[in-house]
From TrEMBL, chain A:
Signal peptide: none annotated. It comes from Lymnaea stagnalis (Great pond snail). InterPro entries: Ribosomal_uS2, Ribosomal_uS2_bac/mit/plastid, Ribosomal_uS2_CS, Ribosomal_uS2_flav_dom_sf. Keywords: Ribonucleoprotein, Ribosomal protein. It comes from the Eukaryota. PROSITE patterns: RIBOSOMAL_S2_1. GO terms for biological process: translation. GO terms for molecular function: structural constituent of ribosome. GO terms for cellular component: mitochondrial small ribosomal subunit. This is Mitochondrial ribosomal protein S2. Pfam families: Ribosomal_S2 (PF00318). Belongs to the universal ribosomal protein uS2 family.
Automatic annotation (TrEMBL), chain B:
The keyword Cell cycle does not apply. It is found in: Mitochondrion. CDD domains: At1g26750. This is Small ribosomal subunit protein mS23. The lineage of its organism: Eukaryota, Metazoa, Spiralia, Lophotrochozoa, Mollusca. Pfam families: MRP-S23 (PF10484). Residues 2-119 form the Small ribosomal subunit protein mS23 conserved domain. Keywords: Mitochondrion, Ribonucleoprotein, Ribosomal protein. GO terms for cellular component: mitochondrion; ribosome. The keyword Amino-acid biosynthesis does not apply. It comes from the Eukaryota. Belongs to the mitochondrion-specific ribosomal protein mS23 family. GO terms for molecular function: structural constituent of ribosome. It comes from Lymnaea stagnalis (Great pond snail). PANTHER family: MITOCHONDRIAL RIBOSOMAL PROTEIN S23, SMALL RIBOSOMAL SUBUNIT PROTEIN MS23.
UniProtKB/TrEMBL annotation, chain C:
GO terms for biological process: translation. This is 28S ribosomal protein S9, mitochondrial. The keyword Ribosomal protein applies. Residues 394-410 have a biased composition (Basic and acidic residues). InterPro entries: Ribosomal_Su5_D2-typ_SF, Ribosomal_uS9, Ribsml_uS5_D2-typ_fold_subgr. Keywords: Ribonucleoprotein, Ribosomal protein. Gene3D superfamilies: 3.30.230.10. GO terms for molecular function: RNA binding; structural constituent of ribosome. Residues 50-69, 393-418 are annotated as: Disordered. One of its GO terms (cellular component) is mitochondrial small ribosomal subunit.
Length: 284, 174, 418
């Protein structure tokens, strides 16, 4: 029992489960009072088979855990738990100029299935394909937030940098719109001098670092099994590395603003649901 | 992170499933996105296809218009009420076409004449060229507008002679 | 226990460190000797990098205060990263405690050896004692033995990077330079706000705010590259620093930048006026009631001490001789230059004593001493005049050392190809 609890303690997956309450409060109490000594106290607490806990028996622990799991299950079974389906229509996408791609000469072959056709030398993205993909991506993003995941916004377009950072800050998530240092994920332990911390989802608002290069973060996230959502324009060569690609225009302020607003709404709704369902007790 | 760093082989879901199946990562240690991606699987990538050009019926008319006639007048982009000359040309063409009273090879001519009756004068490339050539080197920098011929005839009598001569030259073969 | 180590051994160890150019023991002391997490959150702690391999290069992050304030009924799980951190912090803490004890004991031993009161032995006393007991001929001052507070020696380290549940505290955590980049972000936002405000004011025809004279930042300068790095405790690159400067200049040049003055000044160093009166010579009176002032001066290896009597008759005495002490006329002239500048030639008496070095050094040293002594008698304008002509500045040039393989500092041995 103690061993399994230790394991539970150690992984963020289960961090918000109610069954943790008594023993964790104990740990917290120790932590508050004794501060630096807390590491030892936690270990002692664990090694002694949690003698200190009185209120909760093991069976109770699991029932509560499963209760919470079932909340997640119910949420994910629901077709549109966060009401994101009506958030955006084809008309909105069209008006935000999401359908405009690049010049034919810049097209990457892997993007050809998402292209509706070429009009006067410019590729037009098939919005009928974009819309369901966008819905899926929004839903995925919301579910990750609902389960307490971290979201990282990435964008290497200098024009949109302040806006993206602002949005990330507003929704209390993370952003990285600055030059990507190689190894930010793959060499994380050395770069941050701690055990590696990865976001649960990377949202790439454009996937190109420069006009010629793919964003290194796409590759690194894929290497380290971090799911990604990416807006892929017609010149993008890494759509296969992105878990949820959204074909669309990533160079127009209007389209970027639309995408940012959509993700922002999705995250906010998920956080509200989280509070409603009583999962996020820290938020109150 | 356990597992291979070969990012190009398989999706992240497939790789994580492999790690779970082999026991490298225990079931309870699975990351939070795993269940979500399982429930909302990414749509499969459609097979590559040949991208077609997008063409509309009016493209044929527009192409003919620009091949034959010079740019009419500057377009006011913020003016949504009045139609441009090109738009009127295209509309008229399709109007005549739908009437079916005009033979197909006469449609363009008929459109031109109808527009002329409505007070829109279109200048063909050939006409424009002849006018440019007919101008003396003195007034070479000026461009033609609708008012141009009047002002030219009033003020510059010198230009009259070469213009007439040239006109005669053009008339001969016709 | 460390206290059993004879203090001399420790000093010798320090010396070894010094030779290898490794930092000596550095210790941080906390008043109660009992570290708490709160404690650490509040102050930027420094750590001895060398002593423990497990601690090498670690950033110790601490939970944010908001979590500590939470009622204990709240649910929280401690992330793996946080647990690892806490273990490291624990072991590090033990090491630090031992080092604190060592430092204290070393200091007391030093005080005893020097025959002073161990309880009131300050850092200045420590430095003096070490210089006396372990004289070092090593050229580089950093290489000489020293016993110092770690805050002065080691670079600051970051605290608080992620919270208990493993969520980074900073929204730009993944950029690796969160503090720096958040400032860049702030600059951009402020710039945008100012632009919007400018448009608004212009449209409303309120131009009085726009006609404020531009910011005068002549009395300050931007933080240097090193200062910026220290401020953010981050490895900012040189090109990023240049980028920062460009953005800041752009903000400053905006007509409404005076609204963001506090923000701008946070990244500027105030330039201090070179004070004329740091240690001005005082007017004294001798037994006969004559007023005089004394000053010292140096140039090259020479040292001079000057007594300047005013009013006087223009009598000059240098090492018991008159102005003919210098055979070179140039020296005599340069000696009297500050007097002529102040317009007091013939109105003062000079008694000078010069030592070491040669006539050039003597001349320069006396000139500096005379100028300094003169400051006691003349008014502010003349003093400023003296300063601007460089009369009050010590000539920093020194004899250049001879190099091996050549005849002198620059001169080479005679050499013929064949």
């Amino acid at each position: 029992m103690a061993a399994s609890l230790c394991r539970m303690l150690s992984w963020r997956t289960f961090k918000n489960h109610k069954w943790m309450t008594p023993c964790c409060s104990e740990i917290l109490a120790t932590y508050n009072v004794k501060s630096f000594g807390s590491a030892v106290n936690i270990q002692r607490c664990q090694s002694s088979g949690l003698n200190t806990q009185q209120a909760v028996s093991p069976s109770e622990v699991y029932t509560k855990a499963s209760e919470n799991l079932s909340t997640f299950e119910a949420a994910i079974q629901h077709e549109d738990y966060f009401g994101l389906k009506n958030l955006v229509t084809l008309q909105d996408l069209f008006q935000a100029r999401v359908h405009l791609g690049h010049n034919v000469g810049l097209r990457h072959e892997s993007m050809s299935p998402y292209i509706y056709g070429t009009r006067q030398g410019v590729d037009i993205i098939d919005l009928e394909q974009t819309l369901p993909l966008l819905h899926d991506a929004l839903n995925f993003c919301a579910h990750i937030v609902y389960r307490g995941g971290m979201i990282l916004f990435l964008c290497r377009n200098m024009q949109f940098l302040p806006k993206v950072e602002q949005t990330a800050r507003e929704v209390k998530e993370y952003s990285h719109c600055r030059p990507w240092l190689r190894g930010t994920f793959t060499n994380s332990a050395n770069m941050f001098n701690s055990l590696p911390i990865y976001p649960e989802l990377c949202i790439f608002l454009n996937t190109q670092d420069t006009v010629f290069e793919t964003h290194r973060g796409v590759v690194e996230a894929s290497k380290l099994l971090v799911p990604t959502i990416g807006i892929v324009d017609t010149n993008v060569d890494c759509a296969n590395l992105i878990a949820y690609p959204i074909p669309g225009n990533d160079d127009s302020p209007a389209s970027l603003q639309l995408f940012l607003d959509l993700f922002k709404t999705a995250i906010i709704r998920a956080k509200e649901k989280r509070k409603e369902d009583g999962i996020d007790e820290t938020a109150s | 992170m356990a597992g291979s760093r070969r990012e190009k082989l398989g999706s992240i879901f497939a790789r994580m499933s492999g790690l779970l199946r082999s026991g490298a990562i225990k079931e309870e240690d699975r990351p939070i996105w795993y269940d979500v991606i399982k429930a909302i699987p990414p749509k499969p990538v459609p097979p590559p296809k040949q991208v077609q050009n997008i063409l509309y019926p009016e493209d044929f008319v527009i192409a003919h218009f620009y091949r034959t006639y010079t740019d009419p007048e500057p377009v006011r982009l913020n003016d949504h009420k009045n139609k441009t000359v090109l738009q009127r040309f295209v509309d008229k063409y399709f109007e005549l076409q739908s009437k079916k009273s005009v033979p197909t090879d006469q449609l363009f001519n008929e459109t031109l004449l109808t527009l002329k009756a409505e007070g829109i004068h279109l200048i063909t490339h050939a006409e424009k060229q002849s006018r440019t050539k007919g101008k003396s080197p003195v007034s070479g920098g000026e461009t033609f507008t609708d008012q141009m011929p009047i002002t030219v005839s009033k003020k510059l009598d010198v230009n009259k002679i070469p213009q007439i001569n040239l006109q005669q030259l053009f008339d001969k073969p016709g | 226990m460390a206290s059993n180590i004879p203090w001399m051994t420790r000093l010798v160890r320090m010396n070894c460190f010094a030779k290898q150019r490794i930092y000596p023991i550095a210790i941080s002391i906390f008043q109660d000797g009992n570290l708490t997490l709160n404690h650490v959150v509040q102050q930027q702690r420094t750590y001895d990098v060398k002593n423990d391999s497990t601690d090498h290069g670690e950033n110790f992050s601490i939970s944010p205060p908001k979590i500590e304030n939470k009622p204990t009924t709240k649910t929280i799980t401690i992330s793996r990263a946080m647990k690892a951190y806490m273990e490291r912090a624990k072991s590090h803490d033990n090491m630090m405690k031992a080092e604190v004890a060592d430092y204290e004991i070393g200091k007391r031993h030093l005080a005893n050896i020097m025959g002073e009161d161990p309880d009131n032995f300050t850092q200045a006393d420590v430095d003096r004692a070490i210089e006396y007991l372990l004289p070092s001929g090593l050229f580089d001052k950093k290489a000489r033995p020293l016993l110092k507070n770690p805050y002065e020696i080691f670079p600051k380290r970051k605290v608080a990077q992620f919270s208990l549940d493993g969520r980074p505290l900073h929204w730009l955590y993944f950029t690796a330079l969160p503090n720096f980049y958040s400032i860049l972000h702030d600059i951009t936002c402020k710039m945008e706000d100012l632009k919007a405000l400018e448009d608004k004011l212009l449209s409303e025809n309120k131009t009085e705010d726009l006609n404020v004279p531009p910011l005068n930042l002549a009395s300050s300068e931007w933080l240097t590259y090193q200062q910026l790095k220290d401020k953010f405790v981050e490895k900012v690159q040189e090109k990023d620093y240049q980028h920062f400067l460009v953005m800041m200049e752009r903000l400053v040049s905006h007509p409404l930048s005076h609204r963001e003055l506090p923000f701008i000044m946070a990244f500027r160093n105030m330039l201090t006026n070179e004070s004329l009166d740091t240690n001005p010579p005082q007017i004294e009176y001798d037994a006969e009631g004559r007023s005089f002032s004394c000053a010292e001066g140096t140039r090259k290896d020479s040292w001079a001490y000057v007594k300047l009597y005013m009013p006087g008759t223009g009598k000059v005495t240098i090492n018991g001789k008159d102005l003919s002490y210098f055979t070179n006329f140039l020296y005599r002239e340069s000696l009297l230059f500050p007097l002529s500048l102040a317009g007091v030639i013939g109105q003062v008496d000079i008694e000078a004593e010069a030592m070491y070095g040669g006539p050039t050094g003597h001349c320069g040293a006396i000139r500096l001493a005379v100028s300094r002594a003169l400051c006691a008698f003349v008014d502010k304008d003349v003093k400023e005049k003296l300063r601007l002509t460089g009369m009050l500045t010590r000539d920093p040039r020194k004899r250049e050392r001879k190099k091996p393989g050549q005849e002198g500092a620059r001169k080479k041995f005679t050499w013929k190809k064949r």
